[in-house]
Amino acid sequence: MKKFNVLLLLIALFYKPHSFYGQQSDRLYLSFAATGRVYDITGISGTVSLPTPLASPVPTTAAEASNLAVGYDNPGGNPNSIVFINSDITANAPIYKNGVQMNPPVTGPNAQIGGIGTNNVPGTYFGRVYGFQSNTKILYPIYPSGATLPITAAAGDTDWNAGTTFGTDTFFDYENNIYTFLNNSANTARYLYKIAIATGVATKAVQLTGPVATVAGIRGMAYLNGLVYTATLTGTQGGTANTIQINSINISTGVSTAVATINIGSNFGNLDLASVPYYVPFTFTCNGAAFQGNSTFSTGYPSTRTVRIPISNVYGPGTYTINVSGTDFATTSQNVTIAAGSTFIDIPVTYNGTGAAGQKTATIRLGNSSTVCSVTATAEASFGCNSSMYISQNTTVYNVNTTSNPFTFPAVGSYTGNINSIGINPVDGLMYGTVDNSNTIVRINASGTFTLMGAVSGLPTGVTFNAGEFDATGNYYVKQSGSNATLYRVNIATMSATALTLSQAINISDFAYRTADGRLYSVSSDTDGRLLSINLSTSPATVTFIGANSSLIPFGAMFASSTGEVYGSLNTGGFYQFNLTNGQRTLISSSPASNSNDGAHCVTAPIAFSADLYATVTDGATTYSPGSPVTYTVVVGNNGPFGVQGATVTVPLPTGIPAANITYTAVGAGGATSSVTGTQTGAVNDVVNLPLNGTVTYTITVNIPVAYTGNLTTTVNVTSPANSTDPNTANNTATDTNVQSVCYNPVTNTAAGIDTRVGITLQKNPNVGNGNWPFTRKSAHVAIESNSQGLVVTRMETAALSNITTPQEGMMVFDTTVKCLKIYSDGAWRCFSVPSCP
Q1: Average model confidence (pLDDT) across the chain
Q2: Residue 512, exposed/middle/buried by CB under 10 A (0-12, 13-18, 19+)?
């Protein structure tokens, strides 16, 4: 099945101030005990008369319009309904809802209440009504009722305790702070204070200037659309020209302005202001939020992305704390500065890389309020950085299954078009590739989902890129197919490419990045098939060919291990490792043929294979004779399941044997190769390449010195390279031990023996001629005696012994090289050095 999607980004709003209220929201209400009615004075200005009162509520008595609060009836079990709460200011006054006394009855505290307000901030205190005792700093829960809330001054504040309250009506802000007015002790300054409902700490918000700073009394206060409105009653009881002065306050600056004068004639009585909204310095537009850039979250990879949230209604320019939290996300705080003209904020969101793939929701919160945006993004299933390898062929990506030899290629997923130049980004563990005949990139996750990321600026279009790879820091390199001298480095985050010039034109099918030297490695797809490297640190990037020509081409998929090895998948079948010094290729495993392909592997991870290497050694004997040669046959081989390049073979010098006394040759079989050429001397230190069932056989000749004593021990070791694991190291070492051969044959004949008939003597033996000599020297063919001269036999060097044509059993010479008398026996020249049985 072909899969295709884009990053799922769902932006939802938990609570959006000023937009989810009913028809009575965003209005400014005035209640007036003189008339016993409630008025909508939204937008009032200039000098006006009282507008037509609302049809509802209509308090039972006029005095019940003294206090007014408007908000959501969450305490009454109706969180979506806006209600009017009103009461008289007297102690224990009944509380009315929409003009009707509550049932069961609710009464105010046993104190005179000078103004009430509903907390419409969603959360713990949602819908609760609070009020201050008249001209005091005592705060009461009104609905539901409760005990007074203790208030303490913020650290370093001296005005709260020493000052006097001036107006006791109230409103709320987004962080559940309730506001009131306070004059300092000298009565020279007036402040707006905020008290945290949760802690009772009073903090000075702003000093007031303008008419509100000097007005004689404030009887009502409410917040609407960035401004705090106050109502002041002027006139006297029984007067005929009484007015209500409406002023506004900029909550950020404290500057107040006269808004309207309401002529009320002879009316005179308590009044209050109320509104539904609470103060928020700016408004989130959550449905317009979007992550920036082309990156994505992927499992197993902590990463940070920026989400941009549009804002509007900037009522309070300044610096604010934005908190981010959520399952699998880091809990972070960041200060953002909002100017009057700001239209968005950028917030970093850090995913911890934990949890399963799928949708992840982060909450972006303004301070400690319930003003939040819920941002949901998808964490894609990453391939991770491990030993896994992948091959693309036409529209499909395959996993290279290395659990058996030959490899198999199970499918991961398919795209709607041909893709090529794939690579795994070590920064996010995801795969990227190019779409044929375009300059567009797709992102692929481990679930087989393909995401079209779009065109890359700087990449030519209408062409096919057939080679692709990431370096260790996430740079993506691609090369156009055919013979050319341009490479492109792609920045995935910005979707832009930079052209890199090569020192010469090359025609390749893929390349692999080697972290050990920072170079790309590839194989020329031209007829010479040479291995090559591209040095990215030079300008132009230097192309260097390695080793001799090879008929093993093309390699459409290349892979590099973090341990330094480079591999390739031959299009006609077979997975090989390259010798980076001479370009030699060693078959690691059989694999299916695959054309129009490309390879991907995380370059910061190792690639390792299993191979059971073994070693044997024997000379076919259990004893040796000093002064005689011993010939060993040493075999190293590979039982598999995979091939090995760069195994080391050592055969140390036997103890007491000089290096010059050892010669050896090596012959490979089954595709195995050795670095030994011709006949070498001394200890064996070889590097071999061993395909499955391949062997290297060493023929080692040891010339044993005449004076050599003790056991003759020869040991061979074969050691796997770093990229190969050996499941059975017990057979990696073999030893052959010979003991010295010594023979003391006792005399076995008891007869006198036959007479020796021929003799030569210089001793003037008196027995000569009388029949006693040389007859007394029994069983000899010739007897020779002298007391001043010796017998000189043929003398020659060891190397000259081979000049004797067809030596006969028992032939003797004196070897001037090893200084011993030698006899030819059993096909070899052997020294007479110790008592022995030749």
Answers
A1: 91
A2: buried
3-class state of residue 63 by DSSP? helix
pLDDT at 238: 84
Name residues whose C-beta falls within 8 Å of residue 27's C-beta, 6 or more positions apart in sequence: 40, 42, 224, 275, 276
Distance of CA 606 to the CA centre of its chain: 15
Question: Tokens 């305790």 label which residue?
Answer: 161
Neighbours of 206 (CB within 10 A): 17
DSSP class of residue 369 equals: S
DSSP string, 610-663: EEEEEEEEE-S-SEE-TTSEEEEEEEEEEEEES-EEEEEEEEPPPTT--GGGEE
Q: What is the share, in percent, of the chain residues with pLDDT greater than 70?
A: 94
The highest-level CATH class for domain 610-739 is mainly beta
Q: Where are the beta strands (DSSP E) in 185-239?
A: 190-196, 201-207, 220-224, 227-234
Half-sphere exposure of 501 (CA within 13 A, CB side): 3
Q: Are strands 396-400 and 411-414 parallel, antiparallel or unpaired?
A: antiparallel
Question: Hey, what are 443's tokens?
Answer: 């992102």
First to last CA, the chain: 81
What Rg value do the Cα atoms of the chain yield, rounded?
Answer: 50
The residues facing 243 across adjacent strands are 234, 263
- Report the share of the chain in percent with pLDDT over 90: 78
CA 588 to chain centre: 29
Residue 22 CB coordination number (10 Å): 10
CA 109 to chain centre: 60
User: Would the CA dihedral through 581, 586, 588, 591 be positive or negative?
Assistant: positive
E strands, 652-741, where? 662-669, 673-674, 680-681, 684-690, 695-703, 712-719, 724-725, 733-740
Which two three-digit tokens encode residue 536? 């990215």
Q: What is the dihedral of CA 488, 490, 494, 498, to 10 degrees?
A: -20
- Read off the pLDDT of residues 680-706 as tens digits, 9 standing for 90 and up: 999 999 999 999 999 999 999 999 998
Which helix (H) or strand (E) segment holds residue 133: the answer is strand 129-133
Q: Which two tokens stand for residue 190?
A: 């007036």
User: Tokens representing 589?
Assistant: 């495993």
Q: Do domains 28-275 and 610-739 have the same CATH topology?
A: no
Give residue-wise pLDDT tens across range 370-406: 888 999 999 999 999 999 999 999 999 999 999 999 9
Q: What fold does the segment set 389-607 form as a domain?
A: Neuraminidase (2.120.10)
pLDDT (tens digit per residue) in 429-456: 999 999 999 999 999 999 999 999 999 9
- Cβ contacts of residue 185 below 8 Å, gap of 6+? 159, 162, 163, 164
Mean pLDDT of 627-645: 95
For residue 402, which of 194, 97, 642, 603 has the smallest C-alpha distance?
642
Question: How far apart are the C-alpha atoms of 304 and 584, rounded to whole Å?
Answer: 44
- CA–CA distance, 556 with 570 (Å, rounded to integer): 7
pTM given for the model = 0.74
CA pair distance 275, 201, nearest whole angstrom: 24
Q: What is the pLDDT of residues 279-304, one digit of tens each?
A: 999 999 999 999 988 788 999 999 99
Rounded to whole angstroms, how far apart are CA atoms 389 and 601?
A: 5
- The residue ranges of every structural domain in the chain are 1-16+282-334+369-376, 28-275, 389-607, 610-739, 795-832
**CA distances for 540 relative to 108, 457, 469, 500, 543, angstroms:** 85, 22, 19, 7, 9
Which CATH code fits 28-275?
2.120.10
pLDDT digits (tens, 9 = 90+) for 334-374: 999 999 999 999 999 999 999 999 999 999 999 888 888 99
